[in-house]
Amino acid sequence: MNACPLPTRVSLNAHLFQSGVPDRLRHLINDVARAGKYVHNAIRTTDLGLAGSENQFGEEQLKLDVLSNKIIKEELCESRLVHSYASEEEAVLQELVPDAPFTVVFDPLDGSSLVDANLAIGSIFGIYEKGDLIGRKPREQLAALYLVYGPRTILVYSADKGVHAFILNEVGEFILLQRNLSMRDEVKTYAPGNLRAVTDTPPYRKMMNIWLDEGITLRYSGGMVPDVHHMLIKGAGIFTNIAGSKYPQGKLRLLYECGPFAYIMEQAGGAASDGHHSILDVKIHDMDQRTPIIIGAKKEVKRVSEVLSENHRISNEKPRKALHPVA
Ligand code: AFP
Question: Residues 63, 100: one domain?
């Protein structure tokens, strides 16, 4: 008789250990999770006003943006495992510990415009082997994770062994909620971002009309983290945020938002494309690089990419040959 009965709850650390995640990566993910607990608390206790400062893109920062960034930076420092980090709230790659093994990219608080409306927001992280990021691709990530701060705080991670969700319990521990989140090839909901682009991108309007005619359900909050999390938890759906006149390269950031989510989505059996090839294969040439993103059920990502590529036929351009056909 085994003296230790199987635990009724599986902690994040236990799951990482049982999954064979290498020790130093396991420790770092635990440290990022700890930072998430403090951000969770900050959201509930911090003044939601403006910080009176701007980020690297000239966007006004909330006190919460600045505080979330500070909290995460301090936890990364304390871990002693981070060689350098890049935050959406700071302009350049910041060196921390020269002989540490990892470089971390993160959006400390995605969805700032939703905070005053009390809608769900999130933090997004990608973990690379240490080193400069320019010239690399998101496929090189060793792990990616996000936290969604809603009625409950949920952490979802992948470290090349599937996608797993944890809930922050009343004593401040992340407990396993769902193992192996997986995407079916099904579209019950759609989440169309940058909808203003229908005015200058006719194929986007065509895609919207297809979804409307098919009668599927609109589920869009304006927060990438809850909107993509919704698909992963339901195991179906499509999320788009394409380029248009306001955002010629797309609105969302490759490094801090699209790269980590593409990693997680492909680990869950879905796909993430910029319309021509996997987001994971887009070379990083700028820290603030933006990209269009079509992410979700694999077949739907392919269909949307094909409909949107009609734009090139309309403009008599030959559609760019997909370097890496959408998975
Ligand atoms: P904010 O951080 O300015 O609220 O933007 C949120 C976001 O970066 C992402 O979380 C959303 O999916 C996307 O912007 C919403 O874009 P649209 O406003 O074009 O729908």
Answer: yes
